Amino acid sequence: MADAKAAEPAAEPAKDAPAAADGAAAADGGDAAAADPNAEVVEEPVEVPKPDPITPEVLACHLKIAAAFRVFDHENNNTIDAREFGTVIRSLGCCPSEAEIKEMLIECEDEDASTFVKYERFEPMMTKILVNKKYKSASEDTIMRAFQVLDSQGSEALAGFLTEDQMQKFLTNEGEPFTTDEFDEMMTAAKDLDKGVVYYDEHVPQMALEEPS
Description:
two-stranded antiparallel ribbon
């Protein structure tokens, strides 16, 4: 009886046993890697987008803005007085209204010092304005025709000038009115000292602020 049992062939190992063992080993390895905080993690490289190149037009705007800002940066600390904000903008050939200047000032004002405007906030805003050609003045021809309309009121012939009373009426009572100080300052520079009138044809080219083509 014992010999019969000895003669029986040994049972074959299960064919799936090695695969199961390999899978278990792999699982153990994965668990070990996950549990190991020092395991090296290979990350996919992230492609950083390259900045757009600066065009000659934008570079010219940067230089123009920097030069104008420097004139009003009296402390040489890259800031200007907020009261001169509109003057700097107009020196760059732009003619926004007072309401538009106030909106632009709110965008540029420093949160910690609202009475000053920093160059780092002024330059990006002003670059967009110049590149998009916003707030451009009227053409020389348009301004001349406007003066001629005012000059011809009540008369068929053009005198070629406007009196101080006429200028005061048009500039302080109509449109976006000048203050008394603004009007007096303008007349000091604009009127003929001998005759006390404004020969507008002398001032139209400066008012147009047209850039050479």
